[in-house]
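Hi R.,

Here's the chain you asked about this morning:
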Amino acid sequence: MQYQIRPDFPLSEKSCREVTGKSLAQWFALLDQRNALKLGRRDTNVMLRDEFSLPEWWCGTIAVEYEMHKDIRKKDGFYEGYFICSTKTLNSPVADVYRAWTDNTILSQWFGSKSTATVADGGSFGNADGDKGTYLRVRADKDLRFTWEHADFSPGSIVDVVFQDKGKGKTGLLVNHSRIQSKAEADGLRASWSDALARLKQVLEA
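And the predicted structure, written out as tokens:
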């Protein structure tokens, strides 16, 4: 896949103040008062949205950046980080959609040129664009989980792909990419996955 590593909106103390009325530092101080770490990310996000009417982009951003500000890390040393979700409904049966993720020839048409994948638990994948990773779970026609790495991005992110039979030869595809270590990377990956799934749809429905 091709990437542009940049946030959808500027992320700074100034830009935060201009949009939300407070700087990041001021929001962090408020979250300290609300004991946000105990409250949890989801409830913190809801609180920022419902009580302060913040835009969704800033609710999630402030909640995640607060955890990073407090240096809350998982056992592997990485932050929980950002999470993105991409979906697509395809006019193709599940078996065909799954094969598009496991057949090197088809994979090369939408995921990245010269893609090679050994789709099995512990197998690996890579392509000419620099995407690579290891399969952590493979359940044919159901779901895939794999690590995802690229030299331009922070390590440690995970991708989950779910294939849902929607009947009448249609498949619902859900891609969750988690443990992303910066907002710029998250927004860039969201756009890249959206483009990739659009290419997948075009390949399958051509």
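Strands lie at 82-90, 116-117, 124-126, 132-139, 143-148, 157-167, 170-180.

Let me know if you need anything else.
M.
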